[in-house]
Here is the input.
Amino acid sequence: MKKILDNLEEILGAFFLALMVSISFFNVITRYFFHFSMAFTEELTLYMFVWATMLGVSLAFKHGANMDVSLLYDRFPKAVRKYLYIFLMLMSIIFFLTLMYWGYVEVCDEMQMGVITEAMGLPVCYFTVSMPILSILTVVRISVRLVSDLRNGNY
Here is the structure.
């Protein structure tokens, strides 16, 4: 179970990517041979792309591979960089907590209004729930990364 939790983003990301490729390939084949395009495949692929993107954000924080502009940061002494690093990570946590909150509000609104997808007729909240769920995962990954980097002096 620990191995699954440690590699959750990779497992789910690979699953979504494989499913997106398969669905898109199937749609291309049916469009080419049968001259029939299935609108639901494009819609489903788009929603899975959102899930995959949010998983990628969490994965980037997990491995410390998120983009940063270190032109000014690198010019500060190590003691100052530590506090800048803590500040920047806390700002990232605040951002994702805000995204989680507003994503939750959006999901609740969609559930209350009964919003459904155009092509598939499924509740939209099945797909937008990725924002609050994966924002929580990202906050966890940022927090773990922050503690680890502070312990090891990697800032």
About this structure: Residues 2-152 form one domain. Helices lie at 2-6, 8-34, 39-63, 78-113, 125-128, 130-152. The chain has a mean pLDDT of 91. The radius of gyration is 20 Å.
